[in-house]
Specification:
This protein is of the alpha+beta class. It is built from 8 helices and 13 strands. It has a domain of 101 residues.
Length: 301
Amino acid sequence: MITRRRLLTISAAMALAPGLARANNATHLWTGQALGARASIRLNHPDGRQIAERVLAEIDRLEDILSLYRPDSALARLNRDGRLDAPPFELLECLSITDAVHRASNGRFDPSVQPLWAGWAEAAAGGERPKAEALKAALAHTGWKHVAFDTSRIQMRPGMALTLNGIGQGYVADRVAALLRAEGLTDILVDTGEFHAIGGDPSGGAWRLSLAAGGSVDLQDRALATSSPLGTTFDQHGRDGHILDPETGHPASPAWREITITAPTAALADALSTAACLMADRGEIETMLTHFPEATLEAAV
């Protein structure tokens, strides 16, 4: 299994009433595994341990819905059966965001590429690239237009399969941030590979996030996602990236080292930055973003 290397970290502080010293709060640090990665949660709150447990339970619940790698997840059952009755709200919300970005990107963001992804991964395991015939067969089982969904069911053509790798990490960041906000915390930075900030750095000002390609972005009450065509590759030589063109079936041309977008939610930023990796120039990316006035292209290098 090819996975993106990531480290889940969550830092948060309790919203304090005037005159209440922050020093009166206990800091709880949890470390372990979540989302298939090393994880840490640091909470400056007297109920930090209990809140951390609720965060982990929420992440586990979301993985039971969105994960490709849990055989009984809602997504896995949809991919296996081609239909899912009474789908969970969270899956429908991801598909709704997906649909909006698909249309705004002229079809470049398309989670129905999962059969292509599986073909590239299988070929790479044997030290090869998929043959033209295999790609043609996989392309015959893709196409977002063949996915229909409403509150009663999700349905797609036989042989199709979806991946939420281009939106799922951002969505989990949003849901965790919402849980912590409901717990009365502020100055939150959630990092699931994509970022969601509520408030700013407890020491003052915004959270300053350094970008791998250089520069930084200040984040406060906003979300950020970075995608890179070669951020994860199928082959050990680092040539065939994991972001696939739904028209050709081939990896995105590495026109960009990385693209960073901020938006009100990490799910939206995640989907937009993924789609942007398949675009040839900055103008095309900015045209897509006109459909989302609150989204900003922070870096395209």
